[in-house]
Inverse folding.
């Protein structure tokens, strides 16, 4: 398993990451990691590798885009001195284009998305042991659905950056697509975005598998 | 306009109809009709035809299927002695098949849907001046989406009954489909079911148009 | 219809406009426009002209007079860069003279009302595509009622300014008066000021008619 | 002063009487009489005639008509064995005709009002020392206002019964009319029905004056 | 009656005056004067002298001593430009000596009480039409009770200042003592300080009598 | 110490005993004994005699008189099968005569008090190991105060019964009187009835001393 | 994996199982399974075996002992017609002996525990496809700790029954003991009983491993 | 008894001291000392030595370590000018090492603990009449339990400082150990740290005994 003993893994993102975490920092006593994939990742790691003492910190914020991440990157990522950082962002960057078409100031274009994400990666790369790029996803099996099609483009950017920067890559869209072969989107997520517990475990499994997680 | 002076129009259905109405009966002082299409229908009628004194009663209940309507038909429809009744049901009959696939006891099959709806219409027809059948809908433009495809079948049943029973028919799916030509589903409804105010006005316009509503 | 594609219509006023809108800005997801005529105007426009993509922003504040509007005009109107602005103010300017006769510091005289309103119009006229002046009203059919008589004078000022400045004019008092021919004031508004949903639709219809709204 | 030492005065009526009293019986420690004229009557009597030990009980209920009073007369009046009873009812009997014109089942006709009130008086007269009939009122100075005109008819019934039955009579409409000579209705009551504290003191003064109250 | 037409009467004091008034200023719509003697004074004046248009402002604060009044005298009295001012203070100055004997920093000595009160009177006298000095009281009939004895000394200071400065004087202790001849303290005030509504009316009657109030 | 190993001591009474205990039975985990003398008695016993395992149950109810105790004696005392029972009742029996003089149905006369208390003692005596009679008290040092004088008569009844029935006796009035030699009543109890923590410890000390409590 | 396609697995127990589940039945939309090991078991199964459509129902109740389970076995287990049932009970049976030593009526003896558990198993065995016996545990590594020693005896009973009845067995104490080799109890559970998320995942992993769960 | 007449005893510490005290300063009317040993100490002193007028101030704060005490020592101790100060700190300094092993920044080492505590004592010694050092404790009878063993080392530091500085010393661990001879830890404290009322009385007795408290 790639995370070394005593590593601090900081996971940042939007509401999928947040999932009701504690403020200001999602770490400490009384289960402060929320109810989503971050909580599952922590529980899976803690149960299987107790001797590694992996420290998981949740810094997700509901509604955020990559533009919001940039604004708080210094205080919410770098200042906390993580060893590993995971970034899962982009759903809101795309969603606002579809649910708030009249408010262009809320939209983050593909260009801005890529530029900003590259900037954050470049800033972080030299200061950490490892980076984990996580694609955004949309729980919609029809790839010609306009929002799904757009989301795929944003996911492609994440894959491109991960490849160029040689970071780890978690392809959540691929994981969701596998589940969609046997399930209707509504059985995984009320609004095709916020998953139920099964959907969060799909994300968590994809995440820890990339880390080389062994169940036993 | 088809509603005669002093008519009482009772509108029954699920959460789309309910929309936060007052209990036990959605009528009276202080805007008890909720925030949805029923409220809009009432406001449009009241503003354009004040001299008709149309009395609108909202008896929608969130989460209900046609099976639930049947169980409360006597107390919630017949006992209130309406002159006109509108029925908009079926979304949950279909939705549970897709969001709760493991709980078949919550599913209402097409057969049960048709049988029950016919039964309610037969029971009501002789006691009222007019019946308004309203189709269920799904705010999804991809007609091959499984849930959309199923919803279309339930809508077809409504059209068939309206035709056979010579009731008025409001085709909400058709109205939504017109809007979907220029808008993404997410801009009308967070979960493709519960519309925002624009979506509710689309429903209300389709409804009053069938009644022969004249704007001026 | 006068509002061009992609226009931003900012509606400002008192509690009738506010009607429970979201703070700080009444725009965005989850129906932030309140429960009054602004919500109805937006829903009517969105349902009939989806392809125009009209953006409606509610900046009403309960209890405000024209004096209060002036104090927040820069931040709440000009800074938001609207294409169209509607102004419906004056009810509280008059009402306080009648419900709080002992507190003259809360009264806005006819002179101050006219001067301030002209000032706001002059400030705004050159920066927008269109201005919509909306009269205040009082839901009282007895024109010799002292507060009704005063309200009529404030309404006349609005008409005078609209005429001089060649803005659009919505005469809400005239719309209410038509309804009062067949209804007692108490059936439209508990306190003769805050309308129920039918009363708000009367306002909304008067509003969109001035814009050249076509029902179909 | 007409109330004998140790008398129990039960005051029944609608929301004007209720005014936030304690349930189920408006009597006891911690100021259970609400914030209206009943509280003022009790305080005026207690402060001026402490040695009489007058016991005031508030049994008002918001929204009630004479029909509602009849339904609870046994438990809420007779069972409590009062020495004196005051009845102030009728505002809702009239108001519903004007604010809910479409719901005739909420209206209490003049005939039903008179019949029921006479019935309650006949039932109570033989069991108490004294009865105090209190007219309903409407805080509207225009006597041609339709609701004011109707209210006057209901008030006339109260005067007629008081005269026939030789009970005491409190003419609250006359008291309010005196105040309306120098004040606009809105300065006494937000909705022309529920008075502010000055309005409630006008009622209380009219009430205790009929009892022969001496200020000093 | 001594208060001229259009006068503004500001009443300041402790929790007896406060009685749940609105913040920051106890004046305006919706009965903001609390539930105590200030509310009763206002209602009695408004009901008997509507044409005078007396404006009553409640600036009481629970728990305050004369030391606290001094600290807010500029903002809470002088800045509001009253025509008349009433001051009822001293109960907490004494009470803390008895309920918090171990915290001498909360006690206001007789000397500090007199000096500060004189200072406030001197500051205010030249700026107002009239001053009304109100004694503190203790609802205890045993004059040898230590707290009652102390309270009497503080009351004597108020009488002395009122006499020297030729202000009006309301002797609330004398009014309460008259009531205590027929009532046990506990029937007027749970804790011998905070009166019930009858006790507050005793205060209000003593207050308006000093103003030359005529009941009719 | 008189309480044998494994004894169950049930303490019943009014609000002084209750002090916020858990319902329906004041026993179990999470400090269910309230914040008054019962809690202190339990803590003192538990800390000094852990090996005795004394089980303390609080069955006090705020506002109760001996009449109320009788009504619940079977379910709240006998059914719980205590080994020891303490009874502290009478304060409300007296207090209502003074704070609610107009409501004689709330008063419990000295005769009824004695009869009922004897009845409860007779019923309980044969079924328990020991009975502890606790006098009511009034935190007022002036013995000629009417309520204090009455309370002393009720206390005398308790002493008489304890003597006749040879039960233990806790004289709380005597304990409070000792404290009143150096403290004003208001420093022990806001309303001369409900003590602060020092006052409750005075009660608890008097209680455990009667049991033969040894501090060390 | 042992659970067949379409199986319904009902999990019953105490607060560890409950973990905030929905009432009355822990199944349906919106993540009703609580935040504990049941939620994890469901998420792990749903993510790895979506095509099996396993239906998980949580019927845990905080504070329950085997005696409480028996009382609700018919309604809460048999009536719900599960295919598989898991039982994890015993912690409270033991805990009350240690945290409430003075209340023997709350203690469930080893004999009663065994007898009742055998009874429930016998009742259920013939009606289900499979039974999963889960041991209670105590997160305390000192096996000579009295409560740990007692818990081990109750766990032994579970193992004995599982062996005799040939049910599946989940040894949670063994799983916790493995974790305690590298962690202090306080890092897994605040009170050595209610685990944090890592502790719940340890339970869930032990549970699904017994079912033959394959991570991939 | 060592506390002189009129002394002010300030008690500082963590949640055991805090126990729900009033903010910002735990002193004054309405029982502001919380529900723990501080409340008991005050009640025991007040009941036995009323003539001494000892003033007890609670400045405990839940979760604090000696590091936190240092940060607020000036405002929360020195500025309040106590005559006596008691310090009970160290439980969280140790606990975080065991319940949050992954967050070393929350741990207070033995060295930092001793240095800081000496610093606070040195700062305070010259300004007060007396200092009372209170050891931390852990309600665990197994002295080889790792957290108990660590806590014993921190307690030894307190004893060493008390000895060196000749302050009074309260050995709470010794007091708890005596109780643990006859009770299981869970019967005194749910989490082995926060005692129930019996546990708090054990602390209070140990505390007042050191002061030379005489029960009678």
């Amino acid at each position: 398993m790639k995370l070394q003993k005593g590593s601090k893994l900081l996971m940042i993102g939007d509401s999928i990451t947040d999932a009701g975490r504690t403020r200001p920092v999602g770490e400490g006593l009384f289960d402060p990691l929320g109810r989503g994939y971050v909580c599952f990742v922590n529980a899976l790691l803690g149960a299987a590798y107790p001797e590694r003492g992996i420290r998981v910190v949740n810094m997700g914020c509901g509604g955020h885009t990559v533009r919001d991440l940039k604004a708080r990157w210094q205080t919410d990522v770098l200042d906390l001195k993580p060893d590993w950082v995971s970034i899962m962002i982009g759903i809101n960057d795309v969603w606002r284009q579809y649910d708030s078409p009249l408010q262009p100031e809320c939209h983050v274009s593909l260009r801005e998305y890529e530029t900003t994400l590259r900037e954050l990666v470049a800033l972080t790369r030299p200061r950490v042991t490892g980076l984990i790029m996580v694609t955004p996803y949309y729980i919609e099996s029809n790839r010609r659905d306009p929002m799904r099609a757009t989301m795929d483009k944003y996911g492609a950017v994440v894959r491109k950056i991960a490849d160029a920067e040689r970071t780890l890559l978690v392809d959540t869209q691929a994981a969701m697509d596998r589940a969609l072969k046997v399930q209707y989107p509504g059985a995984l997520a009320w609004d095709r975005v916020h998953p139920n517990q099964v959907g969060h475990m799909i994300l968590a499994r994809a995440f820890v598998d990339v880390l080389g997680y062994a169940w036993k």
Chain C has a mean pLDDT of 97. Residues 8-210 of chain C form a domain with the Rossmann fold fold (CATH 3.40.50.1110). Residues 146-165 of chain C form the longest helix (20 residues). Chains C and G do not touch (no CB pair under 8 Å).
